Amino acid sequence: MKRILTLFCVLAFTSALQAQTDSGGPPPLPPGPLIQKRAPDMAKWVITAVPAPANNATANSVSDASSASDPQSAGAKQKVASEVTITKTGKIMLREVRTQDGRVVPTWCVGGLQITLFGNSAIVQAKVYNPDPTVPTANYEDYSDSDFPGFYWIGPSNYTDIKEFGGKKCIVFQEAIKNVTGPPSKLSAYIDFLTRLPVSLTVGGGTSAYVFKAPPTAELTLPPLVVQLLRNRQRELDSATPRSQMH
């Protein structure tokens, strides 16, 4: 019975898609989540950012990510602004940022804490609540709602099409944000049709490509310095807790 219902749903969606295509409008929004907010428990992905062309006066009005430089192409390598590799195993995430001089700066994300290592020193950061999602906490990637920050704006109202991008069939979302001065900034997102994981995000002409790699086969192990910092922080929290609340 379930197989018959599934087949019926697929046929109905295919028929609706064909009818919408024949009428000249975008295909109907497919069922299911618009985007997966969480990557699988064992996952690894690379985010490659390419800035808007400096000589493009209308960079902020770019309306389609497919018209931007493909970060994976050989011709775009010199334009890469940043490359971030994220490895996730369960509740631990490791964010590695490759700098322009080739160094890799790791940040360990454990719960609400993010610990960035610089040799034998570290910076420990906790989220500072900000009700405006467009104004992030400095040097802090907020993963409390999603493993993929920046896609909070997508919704049924800004779905525009289904297109191929980077060799994948994608669901496309676009949104214009009004600016006090100058033309509106355009947001564009491509989401993998099958997995509902992000493929590309364009903000004001700058594009970030998401490429998912083979998942890790073992759990991440926190470095000794990170373990010690977490222990020290827990001691501070315990000592600040009134004894009346501990009983």
Q: Overview of this structure, please?
A:
By secondary structure, this protein is α+β, with helices and mostly antiparallel strands. It has a single domain (about 40-210), classed as outer membrane lipoprotein receptor (LolB), chain A. About 15% of the residues lie in helices and about 35% in strands. It contains three helices and eleven strands, in the order αβββββββββββαα. The chain has helices at about 1-20, 225-240, 245, and strands at about 40-50, 80-90, 90-100, 105-110, 115-120, 120-125, 160-165, 170-175, 185-190, 200-205, 205-210. An eleven-stranded antiparallel sheet has the order 6-5-4-3-2-1-11-10-9-8-7, with helices on one face. β4 and β5 (about 115-120) form a beta hairpin. The model is unreliable at about 1-15, about 55-65 and about 65-80 (pLDDT under 50).
Terminal Cα span: 55 Å
Number of domains: 1
Instruction: Give the C-alpha Rg.
Output: 21 Å
What low-confidence regions span 5 or more consecutive residues with pLDDT below 50?
Answer: 1-17, 57-63, 67-78
Level-1 CATH class name: Mainly Beta
Can you give the helix content as a percent range? 10-25%
Structural class estimated from helices and strands: alpha+beta
Shape: globular
Number of helices: 3
Overall pLDDT metric: 80
Beta-strand residue percentage:
25-35%
